[in-house]
């Protein structure tokens, strides 16, 4: 399996009701949206209470799933793209999980160098924390 490259881009949504920072994952410089479907980005607050990993969304049948994007309507409860993560000393394997009955046209499995994966998630977590702290300081 070839190695993929993980990166991200940032978008700040500003409107009268709220201001939210979103992190959109890029795999080999393609957005999750382009690669997989209509899920787009992850809001900053999903990264608040996590280890060095993508946010855990739910546990089902003792499996740990992680979020790699939420619905384009950006309503957190509407939908998300989830994945399983398997780590070893040198690499991180990520496999997208689809709802029961959905038959994707291809298998979405990605493999990253552990250093690449950990550094990107660390950077996102740091930016999310800084954003939250800056929001809390605003009057």
State mean pLDDT (0 to 100 scale).
Answer: 82
* Strand/helix succession: EEEHEEEEEEH
Taken from the alpha-carbon principal axes, the silhouette is globular
Distance between the termini: 51 Å
Helix content: 10-25%
For the biggest β-sheet, the strand order reads 5-6-7-8-9
Strand content: 35-45%
- Structural class based on helices, strands and sheet pairing: alpha+beta
Number of E-state strands? 9
Largest sheet: 5 strands, antiparallel
User: How many domains?
Assistant: 1
Number of helices: 2
Radius of gyration using CA atoms only: 15 Å
Which regions contain 5 or more consecutive residues with pLDDT less than 50?
Answer: none
SSE topology sketch:
Blueprint: E1 6-14, E2 19-27, E3 30-31, H1 32-35, E4 42-43, E5 56-60, E6 63-70, E7 80-87, E8 91-97, E9 109-113, H2 114-137
Antiparallel strand pairs: 1-2, 2-3, 2-4, 5-6, 6-7, 7-8, 8-9
């Amino acid at each position: 399996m070839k190695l993929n490259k993980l990166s991200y881009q940032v978008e700040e949504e500003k409107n009268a009701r709220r201001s939210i920072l979103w992190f959109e994952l890029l795999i080999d410089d393609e957005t999750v949206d382009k690669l997989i479907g209509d899920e787009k980005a992850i809001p900053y607050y999903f990264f608040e209470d996590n280890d060095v990993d993508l946010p855990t969304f739910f546990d089902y049948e003792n499996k740990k799933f992680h979020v790699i994007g939420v619905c384009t309507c950006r309503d957190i409860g509407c939908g998300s793209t989830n994945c399983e993560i398997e780590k070893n000393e040198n690499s991180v394997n990520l496999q997208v999980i689809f709802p029961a009955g959905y038959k994707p046209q291809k298998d979405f499995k990605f493999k990253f160098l552990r250093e690449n994966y950990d550094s990107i998630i660390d950077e996102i977590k740091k930016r999310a924390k800084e954003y939250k702290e800056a929001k809390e300081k605003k009057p």
